[in-house]
Structure formats: structure tokens, C-alpha cells
Amino acid sequence: MSVIIKKLRPAVVCACAFGLAVSGLSADTDALAAKKPSISKKILTMKVGQKKTLKLKNITKKQSGRVKWSSFRENVATVNKKGVVRAKSSGQTTISARYKKKTYTCKVTVKNEYTLNTSYLDSQLEKNSKAYDNGFAGVSLKLSMFTGDTAIPSGGSALEKALAEMGYDRFVFNDYYRVPTSDHSMAVSCAAKTIGEGADRFTAIVILPRSRNYGNEWVSNFTMGDGTDTPDHKGFSDSARIVSDFLNKYITDIGINGHVKFWIAGQSRGAAVGNLLAKRLADAEITLPAGISYERSDIYAYLFATPGAAYAGIGTNRQDLKTGYEFIHNVLFYSDVVPLMPPEQLGFGIYGQILRPDESSEKKEDMLALLKDGYPNVYTIYEGMDTGGHTAEEDLTKAREITSQMAELVGDRKEFDAKWKNIYLYAVSKFLTPIDGLPALTADESMRMISLLAVIGTDAGDMISLLKDHHPEVEFAWLCVQ
To answer: What is the C-alpha to C-alpha distance for residues 24 and 402, in angstroms, rounded to an integer?
Structure first.
């Protein structure tokens, strides 16, 4: 008998253990049943891009699978079947958990981690000009955006007010702000500020080529020249000469002397002009009034979406003109074909460093949230242009492919001015920005237009998508999320 009992003992022990476990489980289940379900948080504050998990308390794991989660405003925040909430854009929404015909809610407020604010500091002009400063870049781009203010000639413009807030005075602009624009005009403005004391004292001069609302000034973007007047892009080169002449007059009329530092800011066309201006100041190719002193390190250039203004030579690339001009910061964006024009295959490049912001999918969500809040009209335009469905890197690759094909079609810079310039102007005027006074295309030019459209026609949606980053408001939003 004792033998039998010993043999049964393990089974009895297991049965007792199982019974205790079951009774414990039953007790836990009964305890949960005694409590009413409730949501883990009734109020939740999140930042754009964040993820947080909500739960329905006092139910079992098995029962949690029967909960139906939903968001009242999915553009603000979404929620998946496991209660994971993802913040998408600033605003408020209600997350609901539906269980056994009852609804439990959480009020969610989403805020932007980033803002569209950027601040100017005098100390930014006391740092190493070769070191990129994202805050200084943001201020530079904001000023460039204001250069198209139509109130500049009459006074009280956003540009003049912004400069005054930063302590800059002696604001002067040239006559091209007052007269109708043409392919020979280049509007520009300057302002100055005295900074420091004693031996550290200097005058900062900010130089702002017009970067938007420039009307027919745009036409000179398509005058490459044959290289006889200047090896550089003739349209941009002539405009840079207008700016340097104005700078000379400004220094003389205002009576500036001694140590100066130059702050140059521009976007797109204004960036191309600023690029050549910075290079010429650095290489002392511009004769300034007597009594002015500066070093290469006293030049701070922040330029955005810079087209190829400098002639680097066939077989070079955009980065070949970096050495010696690191104080020129060219901030380029992935989904923007403009900085790749004129194509480097025709020998054109840009002086200085080339920098590209982080345009990852995570950063894009933050950027779009800022853009939607700060510039809703531009946000709508951007969304309409974002048709490619590509990553930032894929957009850049596509842009390079298209510009390479364009270069192959054109041949060289002389051939472009002689046979292709009017065709490009016609295409730009028709599809992007109207240009006044353009002649109709000849029969031969119409055939060339067909050849051009054959390069980009099958990728029309992609081509539009490759211009979505060219809006300065979009560029500014990208900078603010870095």
C-alpha cells in the first residue's frame, strides 16, 4: 500500500498545484470583473511624431482584443487596434475605446516640437564663417523671403521691419524696385549695423538680392552666354555686377569705413547672384571705396536652392568649387530640380559648401505639420505637387537623370543660347511663371519643344514633384525641424 501511495504522490501534488493555480486565476478574474473598465488616461498631451499607448483597464488580455479603437480626427492623431496613438499634426482629437456597447474616451492634444521661429544674434557674425549655423541660416532665408515685398519702395515693408528688429538701419534699395522688371534688371537692398567696441568693432553689411516676385528678371536665368564676356553664367554674372556696383555706392553714400563684415542671403535666383558676389568679394575682384578693410573670413553667405552660376568646366561637379570658399553655405533640398540647372554636364557649378538637410520620412512629418500651421496655402500647394511617391534620395536621383538628359539634348552653352533659350522660356512661362513679351515659337523651335517634352513628358508627375521643395516657405519649414 505504501508503495502505491508513493507512486501516486507526484500526481496528487500536481493536482493540488493545478487546483491552486485555477483557484488563483478565478480569484483574479473575479477581482477584474468586480471593477468597471476604464481608460488608462483621459487626457494626453503629445508632440508631433510621438507614439503613446492607451489601454482599457480592468479587463483581461483576451478581452482587450475585443476593444475597438478610433480617432475623431485622424489628421491630428491615429490609433491602431492595440491602442497605440501616433501624433501627426498639431491640434486636438478624441481617442475612443468601444467595449461592450460602452465608449471610453481620451482627449488628445498634439503640439509641434518645432516652431517656425528663428532668432538673429550679433554673435553669429563673430563665429567662424566656415561653420554652418542653422539658426543663422533660418534668419537668412526669412530675410530672403521678404525681399519680394511690394511695399519696399513705399516704406514699412516686412523686410525693413525685420532688419530694424535686429538692430540694422540705413536700409537702402536700388531703383530696380521702382521700375518695371526686365531681363537686365536686378533689385537689391542693403542695411548696416555697428557691432562691438574698440579693436573688436566692425560694421556688418547685409546684402539682399531680390529672391522672389522678380517678374521678368527671371528671363536672365536662361542667358548662359558663350563664355566670352565672362566664363560664368552671363545672366547671373551681369546681375552680380549690378549688386556689386550698388554695394559700392551704398558704402560711399552711407559713409562706412574701417573693418566690415558682409552677410549675403538669397534664395534661387538671388542665391545664384549672391554666390558669385561672395566669390568676387573674397577674391578682391570688386574694388570697394578706400578705407574699407575685410578678410575672406569676414564673408558670411547663406544661400538656398542655388542654381549653377559659376563655370567650373566640363567634367566637373557641383562640389569642385568648394575649396577656399567654405564660408559660402549653399543649402539645397532633395525634391528641387532648380539647383541642378544649368546642368553640371554643361560645366556649371556653385562656389562653396553644399549642404542638404535631413529629409527623412520622420522629419517630413514634422515639416508638414509646421508648414500646415504656418503657411496653410503653401501646404496645400505642396500636397498637390507631392505626386511622385518617392523618398528624398529617389527624388534627387530622378532630378539628376532628367537634367543629364536635358544637357545631352542641348549640347553645350552656345547651342543653348542660340537654339534652346526661347524654348525653355516658353515652357517656364506656360507651365510655371508667366513671362511677359515672349515671342511665339518658330516651326523649328516647336519641333525642339517636342524633343524637350519627350525627355520630361513621360515623367510629368515626377517633374512637378521635383519642384515641391523650391518654395522658400517649405525650405524654411525643413530648416526649422533640423
So the answer is: 70
